Amino acid sequence: MSQDDVSSKKLDKQTVEKLRRALTAHTEELFQLVQEPSPEIIQVLLRNPHLNDDHLRALLKRRDLNEATLKTIYQLDQLKKSRQLQICIIKNPNTPSAIVLSILPNLHLFELVNLCYLPGVTPDQKFALERAILKRLPTTELGQRLTLARRATADVAAELLKSGELPLVEVCLNNPRLREVAILQFLNGSTARANTISLVARHPKWKMRPNLRQAILRNSQTPRIWFTLFLPQMSKTQVRNLLASHRLTPAQKKFIREELQKKSG
Fold first, then answer.
1. Residue/partner pairs of 165-171 with CB below 8 Å, 24 or more apart
2. DSSP symbol at 232
3. Is the dihedral of CA 107, 109, 111, 112 positive or negative?
């Protein structure tokens, strides 16, 4: 018998012994076995009757699990009964999208929010999480939406801003992740009103943005005070361009013409 045959026979015996241990090991030894690199051994370990939630949490922390292993874990009764384990499997970057999407409806709203900020969350996972959050907005109470507005990702905050609800707009404007483009879309949309436009116009972070000032002065709902305050700080060309807007009321265009005359005089 060659040396390779001897080594192969020895390796087979070692593998068989590991498989036996994976199937019969008790609690403490299982914590060691969940770190085994062999997918075959892990698959056998998942049939061990002593396997509990703690073992599965330790296993799901591994970043080298393949899809077959994750699909097997997903089918376990322990995972179906435990929302914490469901969160753990979502956190694993190798979990197939179909599994992630099937679990999201089981989670609480702010569990979804917290998952968005996990280090290593993939773009696809974050997109799925945000879509799941947005689907719940129509049936979410105002108090929870206000909390969400403080903690939400940029895309979720933008959607909340679109509602035009005064308390939500105020909180969204203070969300550090909110982007200027979301405010522009809001100001150019149909839900902006005099009171919410004024929130943007006097906000310490946003009031000096030239693009936002232009959008504010192109909205038919904008109160006169903002024409009075903003127009003198704009160039003659910028003021003249405002007159081309079809959204403004005759009274607003009058303010603009008066300012243009001052600048021309």
1. 166/195, 166/196, 166/199, 167/142, 168/142, 169/196, 169/199, 169/200, 170/199, 171/146
2. G
3. positive
C-alpha 159/C-alpha 145 separation (Å) is 11
In terms of Cβ atoms closer than 10 Å to its own Cβ (0-12, 13-18, 19+), residue 3 is exposed
CB–CB of 43/70 below 8 Å? no
Which amino acid appears at position 85 of this protein? L
Q: Give dist(CA 86, CA 57) in Å, integer.
A: 10
* Domain boundaries along the sequence of the chain: 224-265
Of the candidates 74, 89, 82, 140, the one whose C-alpha atom is nearest the C-alpha of residue 110 is: 140
Query: What pLDDT tens digit does each residue of the chain (265 aa) get?
Result: 444 444 444 557 788 888 999 999 998 999 999 999 999 999 999 999 999 999 999 999 999 999 999 999 999 999 999 999 999 999 998 999 899 999 999 999 999 999 999 888 888 889 999 999 999 999 999 999 999 999 999 999 999 999 999 999 999 999 999 999 999 999 999 999 999 999 999 999 999 999 999 999 999 999 999 999 999 999 999 999 999 889 999 999 999 999 999 888 6
At 112, list the tokens.
Answer: 């979804």
The upper half-sphere exposure of residue 39, i.e. CA atoms within 13 Å in the direction of its Cβ, equals: 11
